[in-house]
Amino acid sequence: MDGVHDMGGMHGFGTVVETGGELAYHERWEPRVFAIQMLVGVQGLGAGPGGRPTREEMEPAAYLAASYYERWLYSAEQRLLRKGTIAPGDIEAMMERLGEGEAMPEHRDAAMAERMLENLQTRMPMDPAPEQARFGPGQRVRVKRMHPPGHTRCPRYARGAAGVVEAVRGADRLPDRAVYGEPVDSEPVYSVAFSSEELWGPSDEPGWVVSLDLWETYLEAA
Amino acid sequence: VSDGHGHHHPRPSSAVELRARALEALLAERGLVSTDAIDAVVELYENDVGPQNGAKVVARAWLDEAYRERLEADATLAIAELGFGGAEGDNMVVVANSPTVHNMVVCTLCSCYPWPVLGLPPTWYKSPPYRARAVSEPRAVLREFGLELSNGVEIRVWDSSAEVRYLVLPMRPDGTDGWSEDELAGVVTRDCMIGTAVPSARGPATT
To answer: Coil, strand or helix: which one is B198?
Structure first.
């Protein structure tokens, strides 16, 4: 989906290096929301296309105004609502209770904590690369022109650009369909190198190379 | 940032914090999410999983040529040799700097990052300026970090658009002959392994 999350090459956001930017987070609720979002997944409490595609569905101005973990809060809430685990108004009602000074409820379940930590250790490698992939290292490919309305891993800035396959990374299910629960076979994922000139046109700086990992569906022979 | 008892804050500092606490409270009250499971995840990434893991990988690669070869051939396996792996580290690729190539890593669409070796990403890595500019003006971004590369060094930017997660293997700095693995790991900062810094024998210049 061509939303504001697809930021490669956008202008106007200012400087990267800012005071406090080196920290992973600044407030205690932030890593707790991170953990809750993971638990919503592991405990099967949510529905919809997963946390990341859900965050991409945020209204663009709201996405940009939100901090990183506010977006995670949004996706956790949306997924819980879609499953019916919580109902509209539940959070606001609890905010009111906490705002009136009610103690924070706790729930102890050491086994859930263990399952969560085990889950974080679980390996989920891509499938191995097929012996007969359509493209091979050294081959020139072009990223298709496309305008997908849903989740995609094909950034806008690469569309229409030609690059060179450097490696077949493995095989994986196309996220554009898989995140919506559609049955889809895995397909090769290629590391494709693009020259800066091809992506951005001429520059006063010496040229650089940008590599992306792209599913075969995104590519055509060039 | 680490008071270890964030869920006991008596007075929320913002509307979003109150909302976050309300979500946790709701799920705890209904017995759906355990407070200790949340604590466990937070503590894991605060205490056990962070750039110290990646620094061990880099130091080992500097000292052990056979390890370096395994790392470049199959980084996921080689990193697992040191006991690191799991979520967001299932498909690792190590990209090695050389006198003519400098690597840097970004995720323009999201903020994908190799958690098992670097922990949770710094705020700047997740910020719109880095996600926007790392691919379109990497030299300007590196200059902001105080890293000025000569024109003869080619920059390679790795946009983590699929499930591969990248770790930069920096060059071993001059002046570190005879150093132990721990001493070497001590100069390998997080930013060196993202590619926005290079290590120095004088120690960390930046985090």
So the answer is: coil
ipTM above 0.95, yes or no: yes
Of the pLDDT bands very low, low, confident and very high (cuts 50, 70, 90), residue B202 is confident
Residues 83-122 of A with CB under 8 A from B: 85-86, 90-92, 94-95, 97-99, 104-110, 112-117, 119-122
Indicate yes or no: pTM above 0.90: yes
State whether residue A28 sits within 8 Å of chain B by CB: yes
pLDDT tens profile A58-114: 999 999 999 999 999 999 999 999 999 999 999 999 999 999 999 999 999 999 999
Is-contact B150 B77, C-beta < 8 A?
Answer: no
Rg (CA), chain B: 19
**Average pLDDT score over chain B:** 93
CB of A63 within 8 Å of a chain B CB? The answer is: no
Token readout for B72 is 């470049």
pLDDT tens-digit readout, A183-216: 999 999 999 999 999 999 999 999 999 999 999 9
Cβ–Cβ < 8 Å for B149, A22:
no
* Amino acid, single-letter form, for residue A175: P
Q: Catalytic residue at B192?
A: no
Query: What local confidence, expressed as pLDDT, does residue A167 receive?
Result: 97
- The yes-or-no answer on residue B107 being catalytic is yes
Residues in chain A: 222
A contact residues 29-58, partner B, Cβ 8 Å cutoff: 29-36, 38-40, 43, 45, 52
Residue A173 tokens read as 């299910």
Other CB atoms within a 10 A radius of the CB of residue A5 amount to 24
